[in-house]
User: Which sequence fits this backbone?
């Protein structure tokens, strides 16, 4: 699976669980850690975990099993390392506090085709 296909699956999984303000950055040639960085906001801690579970389920459906989740059950921020794609899922307050988007200013913001229901 290409990193772009993995990104697309990730964004689809986030959409299915109604992640908000989802952004992705193309860091190819800039970061040695991953090709894409994704950030999204959950309305609650419960939704945060639902988004993470949705991503894991979606990648399993497509035969990808190599991932690592950082954070705890009570965290307001979970990170999923999918190898070529790094996903950060925050509660709104945690996202505002950490402001990770500033770290990725050198990357190209990816145009996401999100449903605007």
Assistant:
């Amino acid at each position: 699976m290409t990193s772009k296909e993995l990104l697309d699956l990730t964004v689809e999984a986030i959409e299915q669980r109604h992640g908000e303000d989802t952004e992705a950055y193309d860091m190819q040639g800039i970061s040695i850690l991953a090709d894409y960085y994704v950030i999204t906001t959950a309305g609650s801690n419960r939704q945060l975990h639902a988004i993470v579970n949705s991503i894991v389920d979606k990648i399993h459906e497509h035969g990808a099993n190599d991932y690592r989740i950082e954070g705890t059950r009570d965290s307001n921020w979970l990170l999923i390392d999918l190898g070529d794609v790094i996903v950060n899922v925050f509660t709104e307050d945690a996202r505002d506090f950490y402001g990770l988007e500033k770290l990725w200013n050198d990357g190209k913001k990816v145009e996401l085709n999100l449903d605007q229901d």
In short: The mean pLDDT is 92. The first strand starts at residue 20 and ends at 26. Residues 18 and 87 are 15 Å apart (CA to CA). The chain has three helices and six strands.
